[in-house]
Design brief:
Elements lengths: L2 H15 L4 H22 L10 H12 L4 H20 L26 H9 L11 H19 L3 H5 L6 E6 L2 E6 L8 E4 L2 H11 L29 H14 L7 H14 L4 H8 L4 H22 L10
């Protein structure tokens, strides 16, 4: 098997056997092609599958260091591991040369959370009223308000919020208290999350005008999706991100994203005394380690408050 045959077989494996999206498969193949190019620059020839060694992979990683951050290098090395593992399983090579090459350590940035007042300003930025249903801009404000109230009120990922269907808001299970049934969580994990009163109210206002979100030519509408774009189709995560960014400017919360609302939800629960394991369940984290990062966020916030306000934390000019 030559290099071109190997990459063609890998592409088929990703899209058919693993059922990866076209975009994901393209990312894997792009990383593999980058390895071929860097090897050809160093050696003057394309990689020969049967002769590749761990040293060749390490040389490629060194080549990447001048062009990428540690996170990108780790991702590209993961793509190479998958490619060579596939070839080893198919008998095209004896062993995976990338298997024992360690990824560079990635600096894990702390999640950014808004303070409570800023979070309120953001979700309330698209203020609307019953009169707004008479204009397109007004209906979009009602939708955006409902979307952000749900993201912040239930701590959802933007993909989870956009994937919600109308019947995923359950008001009957717990005596009238609304619950969000997240059916399409990360890793296909489902969970139930309580929904606050403000989010319920915003949803009711949006649902009153939802029927007017439809294709202007055909009148077609997605009958299941909770959040719709103006043409009646399901709202996409990218469109939701744009909506949040637009209102973040008005709320003086520049750079806030849907994920900022999720981080704020978790941080505010922790600040209010919520148990870490309960937050883990609400967020849908598979591991408690993913949730523990919020303890560091809250501690940082406490230190800032202390430094700014405690008289013994401040130093006089003569110190």
């Amino acid at each position: 098997m030559n290099w071109a045959q190997a990459t063609d077989a890998f592409a088929s494996y990703l899209t058919v056997e693993r059922a990866y999206s076209a975009r994901t498969a393209e990312a894997y193949l792009r990383d593999v092609e980058e390895f071929r190019r860097s090897h050809a620059e160093r050696e003057g020839v394309n990689p020969r599958l049967g002769r590749l060694t761990t040293a060749d992979i390490r040389a490629h990683v060194a080549w990447l260091f001048d062009r990428n951050d540690s996170s990108s290098i780790a991702r590209k090395l993961s793509s190479l591991r998958a490619f060579f593992r596939f070839l080893a399983q198919r008998g095209a090579i004896e062993a995976n040369p990338a298997r024992n090459v360690r990824s560079p350590k990635r600096r894990k940035a702390l999640p950014r959370a808004l303070d409570v007042d800023a979070a309120f300003r953001l979700v309330e930025a698209p203020a609307g009223s019953s009169a707004d249903r008479d204009s397109r801009a007004g209906r979009l404000r009602l939708r955006d308000r409902a979307l952000m109230e749900v993201l912040y009120g239930a701590g959802l990922r933007v993909s989870e919020g956009c994937a919600l269907d109308l019947d995923d808001i359950d008001r009957d299970r717990y005596g009238g208290a609304a619950v969000v049934n997240v059916r399409r969580g990360k890793g296909r994990k489902g969970r139930l999350v309580p929904l606050g009163r403000k989010a319920e109210e915003a949803l009711e206002s949006y649902l009153a005008v939802r029927g007017r979100f439809c294709d202007p030519r055909s009148g077609a509408q997605d009958l299941q999706a909770l959040f719709l774009n103006y043409r009646g189709g399901r709202l996409t995560p990218r469109s939701a991100q744009r909506a949040v960014a637009r209102h973040a400017v008005l709320a003086n919360a520049v750079d806030a994203t849907p994920h900022t609302l999720r981080h704020s939800y978790a941080t505010h629960l922790l600040d209010g005394g919520a148990d870490l394991r309960a937050i883990q369940e609400l967020l849908g984290h598979a591991s408690l380690a993913s949730t523990q990062v919020y303890t560091k966020v809250s501690l940082d916030r406490l230190m800032q408050v202390y430094d700014a306000n405690h008289p013994r934390a401040r130093h006089s000019d003569g110190d």
